[in-house]
Amino acid sequence: MSGHSQYTPKSGFAKWLERRLPIISFVYDSFVAYPTPKNLNYMWTFGAILSFMLVAQIITGIVLAMHYTPETTLAFDSVEKIMRDVNWGWALRYAHANGASMFFLAVYIHIARGLYYGSYKEPREVLWILGVVIFMVMMATGFLGYVLPWGQMSFWAATVITNLFSALPVVGPSITTWLLGDYAVGNATLNRFFALHYLLPFIIVAIVALHVWALHVTGQGNPDGVEVKDVKKETVPFTPYATLKDGYAIGAFLVLYAWMTFFVPNYLGHPDNYIEANPLVTPPHIVPEWYFLPFYAILRAIPSKLIGVIALFLSILILAALPWLDTSKVKSGSYRPQFRKAYWAFIATCVGLGYLGSQPAEGAFLWIARILTFYYFFHFVCILPWLSRHEKTEPVPESIEAAVNGRGVSHA
Amino acid sequence: MAAGCPMLDLRPGKEQTPMKASFRLMTLAVAALAMVAVTTPAARAGASHEEEKPERHEWSFAGVFGRFDKGQLRRGFKVYKEVCSTCHSIKMLAFRNLGQPGGPELSEKEVADLAASYKVKDGPNDTGEYFERTARPSDRFPPPFANEQAARAAMSGAYPPDMSVLVKARGYHRGFPGFLFDGLPGFSYQEHGADYIVSLLKGYKDAPEDFKVPDGQYYNVYMIGRRIGMPPPLSDGAVTYDDGAPQTVDQYAKDVTAFMAWVAEPSLVSRKKIGLGVISFLIVFAGLLYFTKRKIWSNVAH
Ligand code: HEM
Hints:
Largest interface: A-B, 64 and 63 residues
CATH class of the domain at 28-292 in chain A: Mainly Alpha
Order of helices and strands of chain A: HHEHHHHHHHHEHHHHHHH
Shape of chain B: globular
Strand content of chain A: under 5%
Bound molecules: protoporphyrin IX containing FE
Structural class of chain A: mainly alpha
CATH architecture of the domain at 28-292 in chain A: Up-down Bundle
Largest sheet of chain B: 2 strands, antiparallel
Order of helices and strands of chain B: HHHEEHHHEEHH
Mean pLDDT of chain A: 95
CATH topology of the domain at 28-292 in chain A: Cytochrome Bc1 Complex, Chain C
CATH architecture of the domain at 55-93 and 159-287 in chain B: Orthogonal Bundle
Oligomer: heterodimer
Strand order of the largest sheet of chain A: 1-2
């Protein structure tokens, strides 16, 4: 995308098109000739896996939408009809429901990769922030989708989450009513949630395009955290090198995805969502999908509803501030011994919060959730800035070439 | 994070930094969390009004090669039809489904005869009247009550839930760390709902003296709060089996639950069969990609 194209049109038609819309050279430069650092590890395949999952969700989703009915008295049965009477309907529905989980699994690994290798640092701040925006729109999409099958958890999750907005002073209740289209979750809500659930994935596609654009301007980072100096020596062309590595990674990821879809399709779901929504019966424990649990734990850890909601949003938004919180010149965690410990402590905190989000917010659970919530923010606002100033980092290799040579040849 | 990790080093005299202090706080929190996670299920089970954990049973449809047992589905259907159907609807089941491959596989004639023994509501006809007619194989099972209110009125306020997806709508908490294994190949356990329902059907006991069971309710150790509005539906010998299977509550409970599991997911067997094919293909496919990738990268140090 930057500099001159590597592509020379050969056929007459390609030459004709090139002068009018240089789309072939665009694709060629982005996915064939595009130089990728040769020291990337498998953590760098999750971008491709995510792109695959986005397409998979859109395709299964569009076909589901052809059979689904967004009306409160029909929605639950229409999903069961998909499972029973639509050809391959059960496969589509399980693939879409588990696809959402696999999508989030991949995005969490992708983000964790960025946190470890300092992918958010100069010059990739905009790339990183676009990623945080994608993550937020994904969360909205996942939440809206979970409401559609109109089971008990669908209904009560929608009630709990939209209720959060009513914590805002003065305007809160009107905002909630405006979001719901009614005074309570009902048919108007289901209709608009379906419309938005159909819309948002395409907005994600657009932001992904910007994300990839930004990526192709700055180039990929790499596990050693030193920028490419010699494109000839230190990079390989995207095709065939990255294409095949990504292809293999997608294949391996698909094995897991297929296992979930075909053998344990309800493992990540909640039995209550096979009970049709009933506004008069509140389930004993309302729990969101697993991928929201850490954030749900943060929300409930704080006694004031308003501050809880603010903490919930901040816990995601704070990611966008990372480039200015962690200012260490050394990018990669591989050369930052103390950062590495802080990193794993942070990951453990997130997993711990996830577990707590699935448990009742009471007694010891609540207190541990409070400590971990505190630590979650402490990591960002104290530990990272402190480390940036005081950490004794290890010597960083001079170049990618030096890093690779220092490691000896590997063929993994 | 294991032993030897400096984060856990609480020896005095070590350099103190705010970072270390906060690590320690976090470590303590994680350790406490692990303790709470491991000990609470045990502590809870001790409470007397808390329901018991269902027993695990062998199911022919469990596991990677799981298949429904046709004989069992037929017996289970008989139990449903003769006992449960007086109270529970099963609105997503059509008569014709009973003849489909992978299910009880009744013959075409059996399905037609069965349908003919039911009446369903239809209409309006040309004169605008609603009328009753003999059911056809394409009709769904008519419900025992006209609506929820009618059912509640007849059942002292309790509502017998529809059975179409009931097996998937029930489960129980396995606790930590059991739930982690339930999703793994080789350990996978997805029959929580079926195990709960069999246990429930066999779970009627005499209430302890200090436990008050309100009128119209029954003591059942597997139901939340140990009170259920369903009278014990099964008794030995209540349903006649013609294939020689034991006519006991245990057998009835298992058979009817297997039948309910099939109704909840008629596609289960094709799902598992196709899944095996898909996964085998993907493993070979990913393997081929891996070796191609290795070959291509073999001349690049990385
Ligand atoms: C960013 C990608 C997407 C994500 C993360 C996502 C997520 C979800 C989730 C979590 C559910 C609930 C599944 C369940 O428990 O049954 C769902 C349902 C649904 N989604 Fe999506 N979805 C995505 C894209 C789409 C698209 C593009 C469409 C349509 C064009 C779509 C149409 C539907 C429909 C019709 C349902 C209801 C049927 C059902 O519950 O299975 N989705 N989605």
